[in-house]
Each structure stands twice: as C-alpha cells, then as structure tokens.
Amino acid sequence: MGKPTGFLDYSREDARAEAPKERIKHFNEFHIPLSKEEQQKQGARCMDCGVPFCQAGQVLNGMASGCPLNNLVPEWNDLIYTDNWEQAFLRLKKTNPFPEFTGRVCPALCENACTCGLNGDPVCSKANELSIAEYGYKEGLAKARPPKFRTGKKVAVVGSGPAGLSAANSLNKRGHEVTVYERSDRVGGLMMYGIPNMKLEKHIVERKINIMKEEGIHFVTNTNVGKDIKPDQLKKDYDAVILACGSSNPRNIEVPGREAKGIYFAVDFLKATTKSLLDSDLKDRKFISAKGKNVIVIGGGDTGNDCVGTSVRHGAKSVTQLEMMPKLPDQRTENNPWPEWPRICKTDYGQEEAAAVFGHDPRIYQTTVKEFKMNKKGEVCKAVLVTLESKKDEKTGRMAMVPVAGSEKEVPADLVLIAAGFLGSESYVTEAFGVKVNGRTNVDTAAGSFATNVKNIFTAGDMHRGQSLVVWAIREGRDAAREVDSQLMGYTNL
Q1: Where are the alpha helices (DSSP H) in 188-260?
Q2: CATH number belonging to the domain at 6-138, selected among 1.10.1060.10, 3.90.226.10, 3.40.50.300, 3.30.56.10
Q3: What secondary structure letter does DSSP report for 225?
Q4: What digits encode the pLDDT tens for the residues 107-153?
Q5: Residue 213 φ then ψ, to 5°
Q6: Is the sign of the CA dihedral 182, 188, 190, 194 positive or negative?
Q7: pLDDT at residue 353, rounded to an integer
Q8: Pairs from 231-236 (Cβ < 8 Å, separation ≥ 24)
C-alpha cells in the first residue's frame, strides 16, 4: 500500500463524459480520460484491503461480487500510483487478456465490491484498468508475442465473441494451432456488432484481432458452421472444437399485431447501424432508421439502453423505454448489503441523452405492450400499453407481474425494438453437433466442466452459461481452454 491515506487525501475522479447534447452528434466514444498524473492519484485511493473483495469474483446471494477474472486489482492500482506502469500492465495481463475491452464495457463488478465504497466512493478501478491497457499499447508492451513452440494439436473455435477470443488466445499461447470461425463479415461477435460504437469503437477490437493474427491465430469470416461447414468436417480436421456461439436466440413478444412492419429485435437494429457506420459512415442507408419516428424500446437492460442511445443519435421524434419490473431503489436496501452487487436504479448513457433531448427519463416502469396496431400499409402505428402489478400465481405460488384491468392506453409507435433478452443457443448449431441442451437451451455440461456429451466438443460463454457479461465470457473461454489443453496434452500449464 503505497499511500495509506490515499483514500482520504484524494476524492474519486473518473473519466469525464461529453455533455449529452454534444455526444449524440456522433457515434464515437465520449469519455475523456484523466491525465497520467491524475490517474496515479486515483490508484493511490486503493487501500490494499486485507480481504480484497474487488478481485474475489465470488457469488453472493445469486450475484457476482468482484471480478470474475480475479484481476489483481490492488496490485496494479498501487503500481500505477508508484509510477510503475509497465509492471502494472504485466500484472493486469496475467489475469485479463482483453483489458482494452473490459475497461470500456464491463459494469465494474470490482468497484461495486470495493471496500472504499462501503462508506464513500469506490476506487475507479475500471478507469485505472483502461489507462493501464492503453499505456501498454502506447509503449509497445501490447505487441504480438507468438509462441516459441507448437504442439502439433489443432483446435477450432466456433464464434469470435469474447468467449471464443479468450479460448483462442489461451490455446494459441500454449502452442496449439487455433482457427476461429465467425459467421459475420467481421471478427468480434457481440463486441463488434452487439455493442454500439460509442461504448466500444471497433478499431479497438480490430487492433487486438490484428495482434492475435500476428501471434498465429487464424480467423475465417463469413462462414456459418452448421450450415456452410458441417460439424463432421471440423471433427475430422481438428483435435478439439469449442462452441462459443453466444446466447443469440432473442426472446420475442407474442401479442396481437406482432406481424406489423417496423417491429425488430434489438440486436438486428444495433447490428445494422454499426455495420452501416463501419461500411459507409451511414451513407449507404442500409440500416433501420429511427429518424423522425416515435420509438418504443421493450426491455430495460443494457441492450435496451443501447437502443435508446442509438435512436437518439438517429434523430428519433420520441423514445419510450418499457420496463416490466418496478423501479429499483436509488440506494442499497438493508437486504442488499455490501459487498453484494447493488440492486439499485442506474441511469445509463442512453437514458441521460434521451432525458437531455426530450426533457424526461424515457423509462416507464411496470408496463408492457398488450397489442400493436397497424395502418393500411401493414406498418405499426400504435401500441397498446398496459400497467403491471406483482401478484402471487395460485398454481405455482410464485410472484408474477400481471396486467392491471382497465389500465390500457394507446401511444404512437412507428418503430418498435424488442430488447427482452435471449433464450439461449440457436438450435441449428446444437442440433448439428448433437450436443445436449438444458431447460434454458444452454449447452449442457457437468458442473465445473466445459466438455459436452460429444467427444472432443466443448463449449464456453453465453452458449454455456446463458446471457451474461463480457467479463464472464472471457473467464469461461479461459477456463474452457484449460480443460481442452488438459485433454490434448494430458496435463495443462494454463
């Protein structure tokens, strides 16, 4: 602990964000990092706790507390305070292969478990992590390091999202020859097309992919395994296959009028915008435009917020975001103590921007759509909303959100984006490989294992655990690689 009084001497200062009305003019990242000297002061705030919950990654009351990657947070916080940035980078890379990603898109589980946050403001470890990662690139520390020896073993990874990239990274460093298959035209999976550019600029993803290519990893795009390539071919050509295809089966809203034109899944809306942005700076118009439209976003999670922020940038006439559940409290309640994940209301960037443009928070709680109405052209023009309340189901005994009789109201709706989550893996992949799935349609494995019921076929990420965070996908990919390596070599040093 370099400065015992750091948390008393310095206040929390995080990366500054552009004003909402300024940042909606572009699709670029909008946080302005602190200077190196200011970031070092933030490192000094870390108390090097006797029990560092920030790096524990344990599950408390069903939710993760601390970093799932077990990042050595106090160590690299102290190292940047003492101006040992190179050592900080090396310590960070021991646990996290992609700090340039998590430093931008992770919800900072480390900070929510920070001891400083118990009676004050937590250490801004996420911003410190990103600063270390970018220092590594600036100083040439993040350069390609191909393995010195090859094992002669070949592994195929299906899916180039964070889980697939993490598994490929570990296995390649071990010396195995790794080929990653991606069905889209660009590598990155969720990080390329599922996360908007203003949260993670795509040149950041491409920068890392290029390094991985230099290290010897092969990437094959525009190839849909299960359709373009049969599983038997992969089984023949590779010693092991890892399925990391994500939880890409979106949950639908089954109500009258769902067939109307102008109703899309959020993932299709976001992908179309990002692809057009990368291909032509939106000039090709090959995206689902929200300009001049009354937009309704169904779903209150991160994806719903991304739809709100993207719609505002398009120039929407209005944006309404529907949340089925009641508004969470603004502060922790007694039954949600630190260091549990805080179940509190969070206003994210998209909601801030909508509030700045339209004068009010776009969210409506305890509300869903009962019916869509369409015009003579078959286009959605109105939505019938209904208020929900929590009641006990007499058959199951569980609490459920049910409609309140007589609470219906009509609102204009020219574009509807369904961001209601995902149901699990896509059946054409699991059926093609013959792997078992559980009741949630995630690929089934034994507890603590990544091996499927099919010999030499493994799984990782959202396809295995269900819809989750980028940081959990990285952890799953890392752990799956360790199991694959052990099977291929008879032992593992990963």
Answers
A1: 202-214, 231-237
A2: 1.10.1060.10
A3: B
A4: 999 999 999 998 899 999 999 999 999 999 999 999 999 999 999 99
A5: -65, -45
A6: negative
A7: 98
A8: 231/432, 231/433, 231/434, 234/156, 234/158, 235/456, 235/457
Contact 130, 104 (CB under 8 A): yes
The Cα–Cα gap between 269 and 297 comes to 11
Question: Around 492, how many Cα atoms within 13 Å sit in the side-chain half-sphere?
Answer: 16
DSSP 192: I
Question: In sequence order, which ranges of 368-439 are alpha helices (DSSP H)?
Answer: 427-433
State the residue for tokens 């190196």: 36
Q: Decide: 472 and 426 in contact? Cβ < 8 Å.
A: no
Estimate to the nearest angstrom the gap between the alpha carbon of 40 and the chain centroid: 28
Taking the C-alpha atoms of residue 311 and residue 269, their distance in angstroms, rounded to an integer, is 10
Specify whether the CB–CB gap between 416 and 264 falls below 8 A. Answer: yes
Residue type for position 158: V
Give me the residue label for tokens 């946080």: 31
- The tokens for 96 are 């996290």
pLDDT at 471: 96
Distance CA 69, CA 88 (A): 16
Q: Do domains 6-138 and 154-248+423-489 have the same CATH topology?
A: no
> Burial code of 280-292, b = ≥16 C-beta within 10 A, e = fewer?
eebeeeebbbbee
Could you confirm whether domain 263-418 is CATH 3.30.565.60? no
CA dihedral (10, 343, 189, 262) positive or negative: negative
